[in-house]
Design goal:
The complex is a heterodimer of chains A (about 450) and B (about 140).
Chain A lengths: L2 E7 L3 E7 L5 E8 L6 H16 L4 E7 L6 E5 L3 H14 L3 E6 L5 H10 L3 E4 L9 H13 L5 E3 L6 H10 L4 E3 L13 H14 L6 H6 L6 E2 H16 L2 E6 L4 E6 L8 E3 L7 E6 L8 H8 L1 H5 L5 H13 L10 H19 L2 E7 L2 E7 L8 E5 L1 H4 L4 H5 L12 E5 L4 H6 L5 H11 E3 L1
Parallel strand pairs in A: 1-4, 4-10, 5-6, 5-7, 7-8, 8-9, 11-17, 13-16, 17-18
Antiparallel strand pairs in A: 1-2, 2-3, 11-12, 12-14, 15-16, 18-19
Helix pairs in contact in A: 4-5, 9-12
Chain B lengths: L2 E6 L7 H12 L3 E4 L6 H11 L3 E6 L4 H5 L2 H7 L6 E6 L8 H10 L4 E3 L5 H12 L3
Parallel strand pairs in B: 1-2, 1-3, 3-4, 4-5
The chains are: A alpha/beta (about 450), B alpha/beta (about 140).
Chain lengths: ~450, ~140
């Protein structure tokens, strides 16, 4: 029987994993992503290594990609804290990168910025169902008048989207109409918008030369890599209960959580009820390209305070800040661990909601907004930074304050297969589960 | 069906009356967007914008209504919904004060209707239907 080949075409590496029909990993290889020439070059070079490992020539191929900047999107809503936030969460949940978020009427500057940013897709929301129609319609008209056609997902007030779609279609935009991301105040319904984004990604977005060639060989449509990771985590959460995934990269840190949306007795929830499966991305928290802002957030002195030899770390930190492609010098891996630990702390803290004690004449009341991560049983480290670290446990260890996980067990995606397994989460969940079980290691 | 935004303003956790109003106005045919207790002015206004509400119904039961409600009309004007109907009711001030001056104070603040303690929901419903010109 043909083996399954799972490809993760990343921004720097193309990683291939071959599994048999039982989900046992029978081959793994990677090669630099050749986005400058044709991505098939890198793919084929990793594939020939896989062929050597497995002896097999026939594969059923699945792939995800974040090459050439991934799926870049813009989100537009009406009130920034309401449909603006809902639109942003839908974009993140579809595995896209948020280039910009706009609220209220798009003005001339916004329209020019949208035209300059040239997003792959723009998600346009605004108004609850039966609510405000005016702003959504004015925004569709403004886009039609001032911006060159681009793929649009319309996910706003159901009483306005068809008229809006007509305005945009007439101006040459490709439009996917879907359900409102916020049908009622503070209630999200983002899965249909995510689906629409995936459909447009599939049919319209060719990010790099060779992507179409690869697409033609696939058993299922190409999806954005974070969408695959989100799907893998969902499969795990169905078995293991509420959990959190953290993926530290060079430029960003992604956090995925499953659960944490119940309102504990005696508390009052305010604002949007967050999605059960939620992804956030911290664009200013990363190990290299965003190191400067990470260090600023963490506090340089806080990082150096943990150094055995402060001066040595100080010099090393300056070097990697200046040369992001540099690896840390042997013997100074501790610095890398501390930086990664701060990346986890800051990103998870931002992912979590907030709890504020309000003193009222009737006594103290706790007001909750966003996600309550206290009940997350498991925290899983995902990605190269964790896999290659001598101390992934140290990286994932956080203080259990506020709404952060209270007593989670820490685990590692040791074979780096989260995205690969996610590719099979829908069609072959049994195989995906086996792969995850083989890769997950307790820390 | 007219949409209305309902909530208890400020650091006020009186939930029961809020639920009764939610039930009564829904039964009367309104589309009620209920923000519940501990609602800020900003939340009332944002909800009204997003849902295209025709009225904001503010409750205050704990006696600090005056300070919590001050400036709400101005903030609505600033946010582009200056014409929206604003109702307020409950125990708006501390102690047993004379009703007329209290009502005048809230009318002056820009509220369209001000209801004393003990008002039955039916009264507010009738008034709102009249103000909105719906039956």
């Amino acid at each position: 029987m043909a083996l399954i080949l799972l490809a993760d075409v990343g921004s720097t590496w193309t990683k291939l994993t071959a599994v048999d029909s039982n989900g046992s990993i029978v081959g793994q290889a990677s090669a630099p992503t050749t986005v400058g020439t044709d991505i098939m070059e890198g793919f084929n070079s990793a594939l020939s290594e896989i062929r050597g490992q497995t002896g097999s020539k026939e594969y059923s191929i699945y792939a995800c990609s974040s090459a050439a900047g991934g799926l870049g999107m813009i989100a537009c809503g009406l009130v920034p804290e309401l449909t603006g936030q809902a639109a942003k969460l839908a974009v993140l949940g579809a595995g896209a990168k948020v280039l910009q978020v706009y609220g209220y009427n798009l003005n001339e500057d916004d329209l020019k910025e949208i035209d300059d940013l040239r997003p792959d897709i723009l998600l346009l929301a605004g108004g609850t169902d039966g609510g405000n129609k005016k702003i959504l319609l004015e925004n569709t008209q403004a886009l039609a008048d001032k911006v060159s056609p681009l793929p649009i997902v319309l996910a706003g007030n159901r009483n306005a989207i068809h008229q809006g779609s007509e305005i945009l279609s007439r101006a040459g935009f490709s439009v996917e109409v879907t359900s409102n991301v916020m049908p009622e105040l503070n209630r999200l319904d983002i899965e249909p918008a995510r689906e629409a984004i995936r459909n447009l990604f599939m049919s319209h977005i060719v990010k790099a030369k060779g992507m179409e060639t690869l697409s033609r060989r696939l058993a299922a449509p190409l999806i954005p890599t974070p969408a695959a990771v989100l799907a893998a985590g969902k499969l795990l959460a169905q078995e293991m209960g509420e959990l959190l995934l953290v993926d530290i990269g060079g430029a960003t840190t992604d956090v995925y959580s499953y659960g944490g949306i119940e309102t504990p007795a005696g508390m009052v929830r305010k604002g949007i009820v967050p999605p059960w499966d939620m992804r956030t991305v911290e664009a200013d928290i990363g190990m290299r390209y965003s190191l400067q802002s990470l260090v600023e957030q963490a506090g340089r002195e806080n990082i150096l305070a943990q150094a055995p030899h402060q001066e040595q770390w100080r010099q090393e930190l300056d070097k990697i800040l200046t040369y992001p492609n540099r690896l840390v010098s042997p013997g100074l891996e501790g610095l890398e661990i501390i930086i990664a630990q701060w990346a986890v702390r800051i990103s998870v803290q931002r992912h979590a909601g907030s709890m504020e004690r309000v003193y009222t004449p009737a006594g103290a009341t706790d007001v909750l907004s966003g996600k309550d991560l206290r009940g997350m049983n498991t925290v899983i480290g995902v990605g190269g930074v964790m896999v290659n670290s001598p101390d992934p446990k140290g990286i994932l260890t956080m203080d259990s304050k506020g709404l952060l996980p209270e007593k989670p067990r820490l685990m590692l995606d040791s074979k780096y297969i989260m995205a690969a397994a996610g590719l099979l989460a829908g069609s072959e969940p049994r195989v995906a589960r086996r792969m995850l079980a083989e890769s997950l290691a307790a820390l | 069906m007219a949409t209305i935004v309902l909530g208890v303003i400020g650091s006020d956790v009186h939930a029961i009356g809020n639920r009764i109003l939610d039930y009564a106005f829904t039964e009367a045919g309104f589309n009620v967007v209920n923000l519940g207790v501990l609602t800020t002015q900003k939340e009332f206004i944002q909800a009204a914008i997003e849902t295209d509400a025709r009225a904001i119904l503010v409750s205050s039961l704990y006696g600090h209504g005056e300070i919590d409600c001050r400036g709400l009309r101005e903030m609505c004007i600033e946010a582009g919904i200056g014409d929206i109907l604003l109702y307020v009711g409950g125990n708006l001030v501390v102690g047993k004060q004379e009703w007329e001056p209290v009502r005048d104070k809230f009318l002056k603040m820009g509220f369209d209707q001000v209801f004393p303690p003990g008002t039955m929901p039916a009264e507010g419903i009738a008034m709102l239907k009249q103000d909105l010109g719906v039956s």
